[in-house]
Amino acid sequence: MPSESTRRSFLATSAATFAGTLATAGGLHAAGDDALRVGLIGCGGRGSGAAAQALRADKNVTLFAMGDAFSDRIETSLAAIRDEADVASKIDVPVERRFTGFDAYKQVIACCDVVLLCTPPQFRPLHLKAAIDAGRHVFAEKPVAVDAPGVRSVLATCEEAKRKGLSVVSGLCLRYDNGFRETVRRIHEGEIGDVVSMEANDYRGAIWVKPRESEWTDMVWQMRNWYYFTWLSGDFNVEQHVHYLDVCSWVMGNQYPVQAVGMGGRQVRTEPQFGQIFDHFSVVYEFANGVTFYSNCRQQSECARDMSVKIAGSKGRGLLTEKQRGQKLTSSKAEWIFNGPANLMYQTEHDELFASIRSGKPINNGDYMAKSTLLGIMGRMAAYTGQRITWEMALNSQEDLTPPAYDWNIALAVPPVARPGVTKFR
Fold first, then answer.
1. Which of 155, 216, 286, 305 is such that its CA lies 20 to 30 A from the CA of 19?
2. Mean pLDDT of 216-231
3. Strand partners of residue 199
4. Considering the chain, what is the average pLDDT of its residues?
5. Structural domain contains residue 268
6. 212 & 112 share domain
7. How confident is the model at residue 332 (pLDDT cuts 50, 70, 90)?
């Protein structure tokens, strides 16, 4: 590795705002002094994928450190990344740079230049702030919080990233898909007229669950099954449906609804092993201009599946799905179907992140990644409480889902399943 003084000089320059010497990359990185150390925080399947994509995104990059709450997750992740033949030579993570426990993020951030935040979303605000405070560029998986205090923290941190000239790229990957980008561009140019209403569906099957083992404490069990606890995941409407909620706000020019009312519950996942989250939501969001979008999500096996946004315009209609040739616009004049070059959106996220670092032209997705997360939280609040929730109520909520301590041995009771009309807005 290059000397620390040389590295610090390069990295300080690359984080400066649009420095003239970084306007072109040619020749600047030839000597190897600009090698970027990547740190992975959160070593699940998505984290492993993000690490491999980061390594493909730049010629002079090394996976330098890894951190996770559990050591076995690091070893499984490392083995999976090493199996990727095209990136295996870019891995340099000896045992002494494999950090475990709740404080592992601090050690990864301390020794890396770019960090990939892929833990359960409960930890995203904390980890993001630590990374930006340390002057690191960030890839942040979605969602970026589980409650309003977390969203407010992320918004403030991303403003600090702008001041420091640091890149923050979001894992809301549909914004990096060629088909989605072109379709939304055409909608913004008026190809189907004014948007009148939208329908966002996320109907999918069941996912993993890990039966509790006798030696697991409450915290270990909940962390191993993080998806099923609102304090860790934010619930389905936040953790996964956020993708299509974000697409709706994107279609509206990054505007957000003023109110929401909804419902949800547990029909299939009713056993204690599934924590206390819902397995379905239905939320109606309304914008200030009267545009309404109807949001539905379900996570139940052996049921019809649909992951899409359907848009009704004053002069036509649109469809956005991840299926091949699934993006199309129809008007009285013609039907347009995206047939341009396909891309791997997960890879494009990292390609653009590292290109921004090299060029000194930082990307900052902070505003939409935080507000789209709040959009999911707003819908969850409406469904959990049965009340009409305004955007201002959601943004200013004092509900903090953080546990009393990040401690493996504390007693951590499972919160009660929300009951509309009984559960109170906080």
1. 155
2. 98
3. 294, 310
4. 93
5. yes
6. no
7. confident
Task: Tell whether 122 and 234 lie within a shared domain.
Answer: no
Q: Classify residue 89 by its DSSP letter.
A: G
Neighbours of 55 (CB within 10 A): 22
Helices marked H in 189-276: 218-224, 230-233, 236-239, 242-251
- d(C-alpha 421, C-alpha 371), whole Å: 26
406 located within any domain: no
What tokens does 122 get?
Answer: 């409960």
CA–CA dist 6, 11 (Å, integer)? 9
**Number of domains present in the structure of the chain:** 2
Instruction: State whether 320 and 252 are in the same domain.
Output: yes
425 in a structural domain: no
Q: 13 pLDDT exceeds 80?
A: no
Q: What is the mean pLDDT of residues 34-62?
A: 97
Tens of pLDDT, residue by residue over 153-170, are 999 999 999 999 999 999
CA–CA separation, 157 vs 39, rounded Å?
Answer: 19
| 311: β partners | 198, 318
Here the tokens at position 96 are 């002494």
Looking at the fold, whether 52 and 164 belong to one and the same domain comes out as: yes
- The alpha carbon of residue 56 and the mean position of all alpha carbons in its chain are separated, in whole angstroms, by 20
Domain of residue 272, residue span: 191-333+372-396
Token output for 49: 């994928």
Quick: pLDDT tens for 397-413: 999 999 999 999 999 99
Type of residue at 165:
G
**Residue 33 confidence (pLDDT):** 59
Instruction: Indicate whether 238 and 318 sit together in one domain.
Output: yes
Using alpha carbons only, what angle is made at residue 295 by residues 293 and 298, rounded to the nearest 5 degrees? 170
Quote the tokens at residue 133.
């405070």
Provide the CATH number for the domain around residue 302: 3.30.360.10
CA distance 371 to 369: 6
Average pLDDT over residues 133-140: 98
What per-residue confidence (pLDDT) applies to 338? 97
29 has pLDDT over 80? no
Which residue from 208, 222, 147 is spatially nearest to 415, judged by alpha carbons?
222
Judge whether 157 lies within some domain.
Answer: yes
Residues 163 and 301 in one domain: no
pLDDT of residue 325: 82
Which residues fall within 8 angstroms of residue 71, CB to CB, at 6 or more apart?
98, 100
DSSP H helices in 189-316: 218-224, 230-233, 236-239, 242-251
Q: Could you tell me if 401 and 230 are in contact, meaning their C-beta atoms sit under 8 angstroms apart?
A: yes
